[in-house]
Amino acid sequence: MRKLxxxxxxxxxxxxxxTLRIKSTEIIxxxxxxxxxxxxxxxxxxxxxxxxxxxxxxxxxxxxxxxKGLKKSGIDYAIYDGVVPNPTILxxxxxxxxxxxxxxxxxxxxxxxxxxxxxxxxxxxxxxxKRVKRYDMMIPMIxxxxxxxxxxxxxxxxxxxxxxxxxxxxxRRKKMAITDARLAPDVAVLDAALxxxxxxxxxxxxxxxxxxxxxxxxxxxxxxxxxDAYAVKAVIQIFKYLExxxxxxxxxxARHEMAIxxxxxxxxxxTAGVGYVHGIAHRLSELYGVPHGLAxxxxxxxxxxxxxxxxxxxxxxxxxxxxxxxxxxxxWQIAEDFVGMIVALNDRLGIPKYAxxxxxxxxxxxxxxxxxxxxxxxxVPDVMNKKEMAAFVAxxxxxxx
Length: 401
Ligand SMILES: NC(=O)c1ccc[n+]([C@@H]2O[C@H](COP(=O)([O-])OP(=O)(O)OC[C@H]3O[C@@H](n4cnc5c(N)ncnc54)[C@H](O)[C@@H]3O)[C@@H](O)[C@H]2O)c1
Ligand SMILES: [Fe+2]
Known about the structure:
CATH architecture of the largest domain: Up-down Bundle
CATH superfamily of the largest domain: Dehydroquinate synthase-like - alpha domain
Bound molecules: nicotinamide-adenine-dinucleotide, fe (ii) ion
Number of helices: 15
Radius of gyration: 20 Å
Structural class: alpha/beta
Oligomer: single chain
Number of strands: 8
CATH topology of the largest domain: Dehydroquinate synthase-like, alpha domain
Largest sheet: 6 strands, parallel
């Protein structure tokens, strides 16, 4: 009965999502394109911007080309470089203060998903004067956001085109997934030259995050024009190029193709939603500080196996469309092969099979929050109640020999 209620509720939410008017993000996909950000800003009429980033890109020196371009185009800038992985409300408050102090007109997010999400919400609270927590609700009704140019330096979250920002409320140790059509960036600059220094572990985890977006969007209960096509495109790119980028970080072609693959993943899930993998992964990040991509990568095969009877037809379909299915097999076998391919890819990328950080006493909290997030906001294809979720979370722990 409860499951039926959630399924009906998901369909009502789908009607709301279908009404969203999302601005189209200009995509610039070119090696070396970060050097053109100055021109992009000038063309759009901006002369003073806030750059939001973190200490790693600064340390790697990969902002240099962009800063040179800004100078050449006569753009003044301030830099906020305090963003932490799984960005916090404090990050946003600090960045907002700089934005207002320097009377900025736009924001450039230069970094991974953490930086881009921080930039999105900074752009909201700087213009509205409200607190971040005010927007932690199902339909946040965000009235405005500062113009945003996103320059992703990881190939994973797709935040450069999505309408979400995931922010950690440090006081409650809770990840808030805020979704609103206003959160789409104005421009996404995909420059593989910024990604060649990504360490293997981050390449792997962020790449499987992108795969998770595509798979969860495809097997979920919401379908929108083009979301399936983007999921297929993302799966093709990721299976073809992720391992290459992992083996040789300097493989520019693989980095270039992964950058757009992650963006396709973003397009796939921004309206079609994600599912339990994300609902659980957010708990592993908020409770144990597990990086987002890694948490997803561990959970993904387990959820696919758990929900297999409900989703195998869609998995088989996705696999066929992505050109991964063997000839003469049943849908069940094709779907099993597809899950097997994900398990094998994870293995080759050094992703652990189990979530050994989970403490047994945390399971009720993980389960409650996971279904609290997923059943209320994602079109999960195989609804679990709290008890079922708790039993499932226990299976993520390493087996006791
Ligand atoms: N808004 C969305 O649609 C969406 C979707 C999925 C995930 N997320 C959120 O995004 C965040 C995760 O983002 P992420 O996976 O991109 O990781 P991240 O932004 O947290 O970065 C991970 C680490 O990689 C480093 N790094 C970034 N670029 C680098 C580079 N080019 N070279 C070397 N190191 C680099 C960062 O400094 C950081 O230490 C989480 O908070 C997650 O919840 C948001
Ligand atoms: Fe994700």
